[in-house]
Amino acid sequence: MTNNEIVMQGSPSVEASYAQSTSQMMQVEKRFTLKTAGFWVRFWAFLLDTLIVSAIIGICVNPIFYIMDWSLSESVWYAPISIISAILYYAYFVLFTKLKGQTLGKMVFGIQVVSLNHDKLSWSDVLFREWVGRFISNVFALLYVLVAILPKNQGLHDYFADTTVVHEEVFEETEVMHKQEIVEQEKTTTENDEEPTEETAQLVSEFLTKSETVQEDTVTSDDIAPKQ
Questions:
Q1: C-alpha R_g of the chain
Q2: Which of 45, 56, 192, 201 could make a disulfide contact with 105, Cβ separation 3.0–4.6 Å?
Q3: What is the pTM of this model?
Q4: pLDDT band at 8 (very low <50, low <70, confident <90, very high)
């Protein structure tokens, strides 16, 4: 190897850049989720809950009204029996749904209320569902038919609270479609690959200059040998 030969270690001779091109592919994933409860099973559970609330009122409230000689026949909304009955009715649904996730009627039929946004029902979910939404549904009773129409068998009160009713131990298989991105790396050579960069050219120039200087100042073995 002569002094004019250059060895550049650690410096790549070609600079390559990689451009990423993405393509999308649809992938099907199978999941098992709790099956939503339909109209009829919820109807029978609600009917049973109504009978239970009526029994509670008949056992706990009516005797007090008989003893106090208060009227039980008034049907206006501001009558004492109407107010107390409404309090017990909504308290029954609110408390059981918040504490157990299901009323007694739902327990019998094996269904429960679940949130679509949270793992557990919050107080706001329960109040919107069992108080505001149920009050509107009771005033307009035909709105309960929405359970058979809306997706995920949601009633109007479910829609307000982002909840639905599911079977406890019945699962259904669903297919979820989602896009999967596949990254393909394509090696492309840039225009700068044909010519060295300015920094590399400067390093080469400095190396050549130093090599020439060392060569001029070096004394060879021929110069040291005696003349004959």
A1: 41
A2: 45
A3: 0.62
A4: very low
